[in-house]
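Final report, closing paragraph on structural work. Over the funding period we assembled a curated collection of sequence-structure pairs, and we close with a single example.
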Amino acid sequence: MVSEMSENKEFANLYRLRQSTDRCPRCGKGPMVMDTAGGELFCSNCGYVVKEKIEELGPEWRAFSKEEKESRSRAGVPSSLAMHDMGLATMIGVEDRDASGKALPASMKATIERLRTWDGRSQVHEPIDRNLRQAFSELDRLADKLSVSDAVIEKAAYIYRKALEKGLVRGRSISALIAAALYAACRETETPRTLKDVAQVSNVKKKDIARCYRLLLRELDLKMPVVDPIKCVSRIASKAGLSEKTKRRAIEILRKAAETRTSAGKDPMGLAAAALYVACVLEGENKTQKDVAEAAGVTEVTIRNRYKGLKAALNL
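Its predicted structure, as stored:
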């Protein structure tokens, strides 16, 4: 309530400012124009800025329909698939006050407290809700450790909901299935996260996640794009401490390899690591195969084999 009153006061002050400056204080003409994107109030005649850095007091997200544009109230966070109730659940506040800010009478406080208790208990009454709450709690933890974007989290939540609808979760580990859904979302959005990375942060065996991943592909008919090894270069170069020049040279090598079909059927992480090692040799950067292999999470044998293939195909 206090925040709403402060927002209304800000709007009133801004309205009075605009009314008092219908004419420009510099040229004496007008009218004054409000730039909502830049937060400036300026003269349309001479361009003099009367006030700058005006706070945006509307919603934090965009409005597309006419009804949404007319509504300037803040109504909480947007709905999300990564919440067990999609962010649409009701919640009775802890303050014993009505809509106008007045304190509730003593006779009504006990009733509201009882309603508040039952409201909290009814949020996760169904087994599906309990399952989703546990799964998405694990998803938040995994996403935080893997540093993936909100789009990947939403995609993983969508895949898990589809698996739950088909009954694939019954008899299987929730942790393994949500980890497999997250890995599938990373593959579908071409986010460079390997199965080994997901297994390390999820405390689930790599074999179990791979089994659940194959189940999701088969039952949900998911089509995964081929991973581009160029997207793995930045990650490996950052871990190995390589220069920007070496990274650009490795990207050039990978593009030439894609043109000559040398990269077909190869592990993208191993191919990117081999291209970085070739770039290190060409640029004179002092890095061993072991350094690059540890940064990429592959073996030295893989880098040697891919290195020989790139060297022979590209005549390096």
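The chain has a mean pLDDT of 80. The radius of gyration is 28 Å. We thank the funder for supporting this effort.
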